[in-house]
Design brief:
Shape: globular
Helix content: 40-55%
Bound molecules: S-adenosylmethionine
CATH topology: Rossmann fold
Strand content: 15-25%
Number of helices: 10
CATH class: Alpha Beta
Number of domains: 1
CATH architecture: 3-Layer(aba) Sandwich
Number of strands: 8
Radius of gyration: 19 Å
Structural class: alpha/beta
Distance between the termini: 43 Å
Length: 284
């Protein structure tokens, strides 16, 4: 039998709390490699000085921290996430950056603890596909946005265009007899299909829907570094890896590094990613 929404949310909370140390360890590296996505979201959400912004599933502060720098001292950003440990890292980073206009609080995206018409914009990076009830979250987003305000969200696109994520998943599957994934179950690729998230947002009442598959590369100095970082931060991949015996784990590690090395260029390893960027606006 499938899990209830409450069980899925509790699993998410535990999963991301478990990897929070890994996110902090690799923070500088991933900031350098993936900050362009934060800039894209800040642009798509039309952030301007003085705005009040909500960031959903902020984790260790992406894109909430860039949002706070963009809206400036007369604006504010609230970063919401289930996982207290991820938010603790986000708070430490805000302090280091000297940002006093960003606050992080725990909460569930499907039951937003805010009044209707509260925010001038909403951003969200790599969170919405993990929710058990995405249409409910879309309704909540539409409720708390002010009329005329924009949402900008990033979710993962198709597996075959994301070697960065699929290299370890493909290798782990060589050892495990896994049933084919339920396309409606929450997970990394739940919102990969074109029009899926945009359709749910439109159903919830947003207009001016825009979506684009945005392709890029993430660079790593070595296959070993790629293996160590992805295993430290990707909770769903860690969960699959944990099903292997110790011997299989050692074998899988070697195969993952070999696969990553196939993407070697003169200046290191470049692994493709494909991100679905979706934006929409609450009607005036
Ligand atoms: C892959 S991380 C992304 C974090 C950050 N936005 C980034 O891009 O670096 C996914 C985050 O979504 C959060 N999350 C998952 N389900 C959630 C829910 N129902 N409500 C709030 N946050 C949730 C997790 O706790 C986790 O921190």
């Amino acid at each position: 039998m499938g899990q209830t929404p409450e069980q899925i949310i509790e699993g998410q909370r535990q999963d991301w709390n478990r990897v929070a140390g890994g996110w902090e360890k690799w923070d500088r590296f991933f900031d350098e490699q993936m900050a362009f996505l934060n800039h894209r979201l800040v642009g798509d959400a039309r952030l301007r000085a003085g705005m009040s912004v909500l960031d959903l599933g902020s984790g260790t502060g992406y894109p909430a921290l860039l949002g706070a720098q963009t809206v400036g001292p007369n604006g504010s950003v609230t970063g919401l996430d289930l996982a207290e440990q991820m938010l603790a890292a986000a708070r430490r980073k805000a302090t280091t950056l000297g940002l006093t206009n960003v606050t992080f609080r725990t909460g569930d995206v499907t039951a937003l603890p805010f009044e209707a018409d509260s925010f001038d914009a909403i951003t969200s990076r790599f969170c919405l596909m993990f929710l058990p009830e995405i249409p409910k979250a879309a309704a909540e987003i539409a409720r708390v946005l002010k009329p005329g305000a924009w949402l900008a969200a990033a979710v993962w696109s198709a597996p075959d265009k994301n070697p960065y994520l699929m290299i370890p998943i493909t290798v782990i599957k060589q050892f495990l007899d896994l049933p084919p994934p339920d396309p409606t179950a929450p997970g990394i690729f739940r919102l990969a299909k074109p029009g899926d998230l945009a359709g749910m947002l439109q159903q919830a009442g947003l207009t001016n829907l825009f979506e684009e598959e945005f392709v890029a590369d993430v660079k790593f100095p070595s296959g070993e570094e790629y293996y160590a970082s992805v295993m430290d931060i990707a909770a769903p991949i860690q969960n699959l890896f944990a099903k292997l015996s110790d011997e299989q784990k050692a074998d899988a590690r070697g195969r993952i590094i070999t696969s990553a090395n196939q993407h070697r260029r003169t200046d290191g390893i470049a692994l493709p990613i494909a991100v679905r960027m979706v934006a929409g606006r609450k009607p005036l």
